[in-house]
Design brief:
3-hydroxyacyl-CoA dehydrogenase, 283 residues, 8-stranded mixed β-sheet, 3-OHacyl-CoA_DH, 6PGD_dom2
């Protein structure tokens, strides 16, 4: 029975996955090379737990247990030494993910499943760098993890039925729905999101409508819960650009990144995390 999860990377996605796993009853080790990032993750978890108790989503004893379930470390070897499942949530850079997976393969228990939270990249290519490609899979969570109901589960070429089923069971225990996707660049959701968001950016650049009116049109006209430019700010424009560049390389011209997106990233306007993107976030 799977009881222990290690999450590698304590950024927005990593800390969200760790929080959700801890609340769901798993023992969780959250690892990052940055002590500053880990401190931010601790503050996030504490804040979210407190807010959930205040709103009645969790009982006080559930909050206390979740905090006991979570540990934080900069030591990758320490984080994964007893893990049944390791979820990698580092930047969307293939070389970085491969390097992390090599370390996970060397130090995680032989029975452990290795999952990548990639939103676009090939789990087959990542898994091929390990001695256990049958125990590798992609589990694509969505931001904010504790609120979003879906996990895309992407099977690599060598992923076993047992590994796939385990990923589905973990998603279910985290109170998520899952969909099984055959590996292809961008999977289902990222291909659609990137196209919609990129077209919204092109329309803004062409002067078709304002940021606010483009988002309002999509929310009220197409019933999306969030506008595409607002969503890009939430994801991070640097992350969106990396995704677009990968899909452009893999799938061709229709995924060419909008020049306005490139300009914003060069200017350091990365969205909510820097206080400015397509919108300004004074607070």
């Amino acid at each position: 029975m799977l009881k222990t999860i290690a999450v590698i990377g304590s950024g927005v996605m990593g800390r969200g996955i760790a929080y959700t796993a801890a609340v769901s009853g798993f023992k969780v080790a959250l690892q990052d090379v940055s002590t500053e990032a880990l401190e931010k993750a601790k503050l996030y978890v504490s804040s979210e737990l407190g807010r959930s108790v205040e709103k009645g989503y969790l009982q006080a004893e559930q909050k206390d247990q979740a905090m006991k379930n979570l540990s934080y470390t900069t030591d990758l070897v320490e984080a994964v030494k007893t893990a049944d499942l390791v979820i990698e949530a580092v930047f969307e850079l293939m070389d970085l993910k491969i390097e992390v997976f090599k370390q996970l393969d060397a130090h995680a228990p032989v029975h452990a499943v290795l999952a990548t939270n990639t939103s676009t990249m090939s789990p087959t290519e990542i898994a091929a760098q390990t001695s256990r490609p049958d125990q590798c899979v992609a589990m694509h969570f969505f931001n904010p993890v504790h609120k979003m109901k879906l996990v895309e589960i992407i099977r690599g070429l060598e992923t076993s039925d047992e590994t796939l089923e385990m990923a589905k069971q973990v998603a279910k225990q985290m109170n998520k729905e899952s969909v099984e996707v055959n590996e292809f660049p961008g999977f289902v959701t990222s291909r659609m999101n990137c196209l919609i968001g990129n077209e919204a950016m092109n329309m803004l650049m062409e002067g078709v409508a304002s940021v606010e009116d483009i988002d309002k049109a999509i929310k009220l006209g197409l019933n999306h819960p969030m506008g595409p430019l607002e969503l890009a700010d939430l994801v991070g424009l640097d992350t969106r650009l990396r995704n677009m560049e990968y899909l452009y390389k893999a799938l061709g011209e229709k995924y060419r990144p909008c020049p306005l997106l490139v300009k914003y990233v060069k200017a350091g306007r990365l969205g909510r995390k820097t206080g400015a993107g397509f919108y300004n976030y004074d607070n």
